[in-house]
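re: the backbone from monday

yeah here it is again, tokenized this time
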């Protein structure tokens, strides 16, 4: 009996061994991909001369279906169906992949998804052989430096559903063959240098939902046939050279949720037919040449929460019916030909987040505007108007307010009596009649930084009547990125604690009465790109520590009493002579050589 049991155990072990061995052989077989696929992948790798992402580090051996990062094979055929190379650290500019796209990618004849995104240094053109990938459904080649034209062979990819080539340097027209891609759902060609007109063949794409051409050089009129693309939910043609009128047929895009035509050369009136876009949530027509009035019917768009009509030639009257636009949260009417006289009362009572009415002919006392205690405002722009009176505590109780712009008005207010909510992030009060000391507002900055979500990073108080000295700075100012106190009456010296502005990129103290030496601690502001200390009374020499400011793009030391040799280094010597003129005895490149003692 024992011998029989032993034989059974041996038989069972042998069976298990065979099963395991069979599984291993099957895995080994499935891990390998077809030779043509392997050749295509290795050809791609061979044209990548640098890979700081280290994605291709795993591409060795022939087990490309199992161990190669970004490669996926069909489990039944062992053919490569997906090549997805995505820069996982796209925010890090040092993580690049340098090279070109191999024409041999066409050997991946079963490929359905091709993604090469965000590597910045993939250059050259798209190989015309890409048209041989007849099974391709998704093509993403975003945020590289690809050049040349979009190859006409793209029109052979009749199974393609997504074509995304944004963020490259493509030139020339959009190929007519794009109209052959009847399965297309998404076209994203934004941020290139494409020109010509919108191909008429686009009207052959009944399934198209997403169409983005923003930031190109597309010209000509907006074709009315766009209104026949009934599946469209997203249309962005902003920042191009489109001209002519907005076709009324766009009102037929019943599923559209986003419509952006900003930054073109469009003329005429806003068609009232746009009110038929019942699903529209975002409308951007800013920076064109549109005239006439805003159609009252737009107030019937029940889902519209964002509307930007700024920088056109729109005129009065402003429809009071906009108060009935139930979903409207963000409204920008800045810089048109409105002469509103007062801030519309309905804006104060309506629950909105962003109101931008710069240059809208608004006058009267700012304090007369009394938003509700429960206001949701996060951004207010009333600059370039004729507002008067004091600022005081008008905005103090707006607990969500992050940005306030009141520049170019006639506001006369003591800085020490002004209050802003703790979450404030940007304050622009330049070109008013503000006076007093900046000590309190800088103290408020440091206090805000201790609260969740707080910290002012943008402060412009230039062209006012501010006096006193620049106080010692504390840790709270560390987040400030933009500080402009130019053209005031500040006196005294720049405190050594200026180094606390460790994130500042623009520092402008020009046109004041500051004196003393330029502190060496400015040289520790490593993010600084703009430094202007002109038209003051600074003495002594320029500190050699300024040579550590490697990000400088602009400097100005004119009209002071500086003396001595300009620190010799690329950081300063690349700037023009004019940046150093009208001082007592500055010398050295770019000025005349210093005289030997």
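seq for it, each position gets an aa:
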């Amino acid at each position: 009996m024992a011998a029989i049991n032993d034989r059974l155990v041996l038989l069972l072990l042998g069976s298990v061994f065979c099963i395991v061995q069979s599984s291993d052989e099957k895995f080994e077989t499935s891990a390998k991909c077809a030779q043509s696929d392997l050749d295509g992948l290795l050809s791609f790798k061979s044209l990548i001369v640098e890979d700081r992402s280290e994605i291709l580090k795993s591409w060795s051996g022939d087990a490309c279906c199992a161990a190669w990062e970004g490669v996926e094979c069909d489990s039944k055929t062992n053919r490569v169906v997906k090549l997805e190379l995505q820069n996982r650290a796209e925010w890090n500019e040092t993580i690049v992949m340098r090279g070109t796209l191999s024409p041999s990618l066409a050997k991946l004849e079963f490929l359905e998804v091709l993604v090469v995104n965000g590597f910045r240094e993939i250059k050259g053109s798209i190989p015309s052989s890409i048209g041989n990938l007849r099974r391709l459904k998704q093509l993403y080649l975003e945020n590289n430096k690809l050049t040349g034209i979009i190859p006409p062979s793209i029109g052979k990819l009749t199974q393609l559903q997504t074509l995304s080539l944004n963020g490259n340097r493509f030139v020339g027209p959009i190929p007519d063959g794009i109209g052959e891609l009847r399965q297309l759902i998404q076209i994203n060609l934004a941020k290139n240098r494409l020109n010509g007109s919108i191909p008429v063949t686009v009207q052959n794409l009944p399934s198209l939902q997403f169409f983005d051409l923003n930031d190109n050089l597309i010209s000509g009129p907006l074709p009315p046939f766009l209104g026949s693309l009934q599946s469209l939910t997203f249309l962005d043609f902003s920042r191009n050279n489109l001209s002519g009128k907005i076709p009324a047929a766009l009102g037929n895009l019943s599923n559209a949720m986003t419509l952006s035509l900003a930054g073109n050369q469009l003329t005429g009136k806003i068609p009232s037919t746009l009110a038929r876009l019942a699903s529209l949530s975002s409308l951007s027509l800013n920076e064109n040449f549109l005239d006439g009035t805003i159609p009252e019917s737009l107030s019937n768009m029940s889902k519209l929460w964002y509307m930007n009509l700024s920088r056109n030639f729109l005129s009065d009257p402003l429809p009071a019916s906009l108060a009935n636009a139930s979903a409207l949260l963000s409204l920008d009417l800045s810089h048109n030909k409105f002469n509103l006289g007062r801030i519309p009362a309905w804006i104060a009572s309506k629950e909105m987040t962003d109101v931008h009415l710069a240059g809208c002919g608004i006058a009267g006392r700012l304090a007369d505007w009394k938003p509700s205690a429960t206001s949701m405002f996060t951004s207010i722009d009333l600059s370039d108007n004729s507002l008067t009176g004091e600022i005081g505590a008008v905005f103090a109780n707006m607990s969500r307010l992050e940005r306030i712009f009141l520049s170019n008005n006639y506001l006369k207010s003591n800085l020490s009596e002004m209050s802003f909510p703790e979450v404030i992030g940007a304050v622009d009060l330049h070109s008013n009649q503000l006076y007093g000391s900046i000590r309190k507002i800088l103290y408020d900055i440091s206090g805000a930084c201790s609260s969740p979500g707080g910290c002012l990073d943008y402060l412009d108080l230039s062209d006012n009547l501010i006096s006193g000295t620049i106080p010692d700075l504390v840790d709270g100012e560390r987040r400030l990125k933009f500080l402009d106190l130019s053209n005031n009456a500040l006196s005294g010296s720049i405190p050594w604690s200026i180094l606390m502005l460790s994130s500042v990129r623009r520092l402008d103290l020009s046109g004041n009465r500051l004196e003393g030496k330029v502190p060496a601690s400015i040289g520790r502001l490593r993010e600084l790109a703009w430094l202007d200390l002109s038209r003051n009374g600074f003495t002594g020499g320029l500190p050699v520590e300024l040579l550590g400011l490697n990000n400088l793009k602009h400097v100005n030391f004119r009209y002071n009493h500086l003396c001595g040799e300009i620190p010799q280094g690329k950081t300063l010597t690349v700037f023009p002579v004019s940046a150093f003129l009208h001082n007592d005895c500055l010398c050295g490149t770019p000025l005349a050589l210093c005289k030997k003692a």
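Residues 8-29 have pLDDT under 50 and may be disordered. Residues 36-217 form a domain with the Leucine-rich repeat, LRR (right-handed beta-alpha superhelix) fold (CATH 3.80.10.10).
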